[in-house]
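Dear colleague,

Thank you for sharing your sequence with our group. We've completed the structure prediction you requested, and as agreed, I am returning the results in plain text so they can be pasted directly into your records. Please verify that the sequence below matches your submission; if there's any discrepancy, let me know and we will rerun it promptly.
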Amino acid sequence: MQTLQKLLPKYTIALAIVFLATVTYLVTRGNTVDVEAEEVTYAELVQAVYATGFVEADAVANLSAELSGTVRSVGALEGEQVSAGQTIITFDSPQPELAVREARAAYDEQLALVVGTKLKCTRARNLFGEGAVSRQDLDDAEKNRKQAEELLEQKRLRLKIQEDELKKLTVTAPFDGVLALQSLKAGDYVTANTLVARVIDTSGYVVNVEIDELDVPRIRPGQKAVIVFDAMPEKRFDAIVSRIVPQTDTVTKTSKVYLQFTAPIQAVQAGMTATANIIYNIRSRALLVRKSSVFDENHVSYVWKIENDKLKKQALKTGAGDLAFVEVIDGLRKGDRVIPVPQERFREGMDVKIAEKRIRQ
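Please find the predicted structure tokens below.
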């Protein structure tokens, strides 16, 4: 028992030394943090409105059958190129064809009648000059001629109407383009007002995007935009704002904006999904810090600045920004180093071990 009592003070002293060493190590190590640092510098600040939308052709023609009938022939199929005026589909329908024949026969008959009245009128005029017929006879001949000519004009208009109706049996391309819809074949029966073809002008694609109503006042025709397609994420395409629809959707709170490509592009189709950044302001020289560096406390913006290899909580005043960076109005200078991602464990005066990283190249 006495031996145990003699040994305890020695163990107590040893444990105390280990404890103090452990605490000293933890305190010393806990006050040093490994961080990445970014240098604040001047660079170009590009402010843009982000929007999503889809590709559509600037010229689209939906062609319907104006009369009911059976497909006689097909001039072009879906996916094929067509030229302005080219026949796409021709229908057979007996009624308009019969109406044209009847109207033409009536016109020809009336034309012959007009020729006869003109001859009678000429004869009556000659006879009246010789005193062989009365003035009344001449006036009657003139009257019959005019009535016959007026009726001929009516017959001509009627024939034109029927011929125009007959033309409705032929569906033609209104402009050069590609058939995006056409699946009929000879013998198919189609009722009037049925959509039978769609022609798209592939040389005039635009991108239709939805802009939040809060961003609409920033958008103007002619502004530059950069477009990325989901189908081609590695490529960027230049465009400009061509049209702004002056109406905000009451449900989505967005407005339509049309973007036109500055140069023809390949491998794009109507309906493709696209994202766009519409540039509304460019600052050629602004002092920038990464947005992720900035944090707020009591409505004041701060960054963790590295000063003399220690952390300093630096208040700052910010200005304009883009998706990744924000302009520093006051609080930092060119060359200052800040922490890009603040952490909750950071405390004023902590020592830092830095892995250098510049804000932009």
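Summary note from our side: Residues 118 and 242 are 62 Å apart (CA to CA).

Kind regards,
the structure core
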